[in-house]
């Protein structure tokens, strides 16, 4: 589902998205201790207090190795929020468009091709 949603975005924004990775994890890693913004990510899309996705900016890991920007979608929180398969597909689309828009610094409607 994520790949199907991502494909038209990658076609439209091919050049701009060459340094972006997209991943799916089952659940977000929630810890008691706050991490730095670079480790924790920014622009978390939340449903209440549960993150649905996170944009982690490019940076440098603890070993000094450069990392690429990454959008991580959380499968179980997305599934829990959706009422059915169509709703899940719409939700994945909306969350992914919002995260790509945040990464590009654009309005989600522009990223989605609606304006």
Automatic annotation (TrEMBL):
This is DUF1025 family protein. SUPFAM superfamilies: Metalloproteases ('zincins'), catalytic domain. Transmembrane segments: none annotated. Pfam families: Zincin_1. InterPro entries: Zincin_1, Zincin_1_sf.
